[in-house]
From TrEMBL:
GO biological process terms held by the UniProt record: peptide modification
Protein name: Lanthionine synthetase
Keyword tags: Metal-binding, Zinc
Binding locations of Zn(2+): 247, 296-297
InterPro entries in alphabetical order: LanC, LANC-like
Any one GO molecular-function label of the UniProt entry: metal ion binding
């Protein structure tokens, strides 16, 4: 893999920061152009590994975010065509897997490497027909296979190590089922609807309702994963909420449910998940678990998630404490420049959202 075309850690992701700055400072467009040149210097892949965070879909998302920059029309058309090729190939592979009644790997459907993320790129490029095809796939993904949810993964959440016996259900926004939930919700809000759309949202939220947990103080939270042992026992091995991150924690799960509630007009759910977010971020035992300032699992991600939750909230949610916590995390000496775990993402959390760059996190 070549690093430039990575939205996570390469120049493609760094470009989002410069594009956000350029919306208020036209002088920054020259930096945008130079950064985009670095992003494509080693080529842009349309291989099956391509995703929102790598290759043609990543560059499609970035170039459409930079809409208006002179001289990018041909490049944009090229990566859009590549994204369409990747999408069709991956959809065909996924549907054939479902037809065989086999369980999916996370990378088939998740936000970071899978079809949910590709759907985000298609949404940004207004490729409505292909996006509808992705949504139709996500509807099928929610249908049970062999008595387990259709998104049940036969391996573990850590792709480099062994997983729990029998696989797991992943609830995280980055790699789990709340990524598809968020995409299904925002597209319904956009006015895009496919057969089974609402049923798919309802199946996912019903699963989250079944496995909702509560702290000793009665505050709601959701597990990062659910194993087959958990399922058979009817109770979790995870005994309490872990770090309140965007990628796996209560904030990301709450935002996906808030979007689902808005899509369905479910004010009871919306109030409930907003309360879950508030109690999470005001609990020192949870927020003190954040030890870095990145977007993925640090204070930047918490702030970015909180900003979008607060913007749609039925009751006011103060963001100043989250801002101060983020600003209080000094940059480490060897901080990488990337988006998800580096300085670009940390800076974007306070740079604004004029470009809706945070759609790559499915926060909007």
């Amino acid at each position: 893999m070549t690093p430039g075309q990575s939205l996570s850690g390469g120049a493609a992701g760094t470009a989002l920061l410069h594009i956000e700055h350029a919306r208020t400072d036209p002088a920054a467009w020259s930096t945008v152009a130079a950064t985009l040149t670095r992003a494509v210097a080693d080529g842009v892949t349309t291989a099956p590994v391509a995703s929102l965070y790598y290759g043609a879909p990543a560059l499609s998302f970035v170039l459409h975010t930079a809409d208006g920059l002179p001289g990018i029309d041909q490049a944009t058309a090229t990566v859009d065509a590549g994204t369409a090729t990747v999408t069709r190939h991956r959809l065909d592979t996924a549907h054939r897997r479902i037809d065989r009644h086999q369980q999916p790997l996370l990378a088939e459907y998740d936000l970071i490497g899978g079809l949910t993320g590709i759907g985000v790129a298609l949404r940004r490029s207004s490729s409505t027909d292909l996006l509808a095809d992705v949504l139709t796939y996500l509807v099928r993904l929610t249908e049970p296979i062999g008595g387990l949810p259709g998104w049940w993964c036969p391996s573990g959440p850590n792709r480099t190590g062994p997983g729990p016996p029998g696989g797991h259900s992943n609830q995280g926004a980055a790699h789990g089922i709340t990524g598809p939930l968020a995409l299904l919700a925002v597209t319904l809000i956009d006015g895009i609807h496919v057969p089974g759309h609402v049923d798919a949202i309802t199946r996912i939220t019903g699963w989250l309702d079944t496995w909702e947990q509560h702290t000793d103080d009665g505050d709601p939270w959701w597990p990062e994963i659910i194993t087959l042992d958990d399922l058979h026992a009817g109770r979790l091995s995870q005994t309490g909420p872990l770090r309140p991150s965007w990628c796996y924690g209560t904030p990301g799960i709450a935002r996906a449910q808030q979007l689902a509630a808005r899509a369905l007009g479910d004010t009871a759910r919306q109030h409930h998940v907003e309360t879950a977010f508030i109690t999470c971020v005001t609990d020192p035992r949870q927020v003190d678990r954040l030890i870095d300032r990145g977007l993925c699992h640090g204070t930047a991600g918490l702030l970015a998630t909180g900003r979008r939750i607060a913007a749609d909230a039925l009751t006011p949610i103060p963001l100043t404490p989250l801002l101060h916590r983020h600003q209080g995390h000094a940059a480490p000496d060897a901080e990488p420049p990337g988006l998800l775990e580096g300085s670009s993402g940390a800076a974007l959390a306070t740079a604004g959202t004029l470009t809706s760059w945070d759609a790559c996190l499915l926060l909007v």
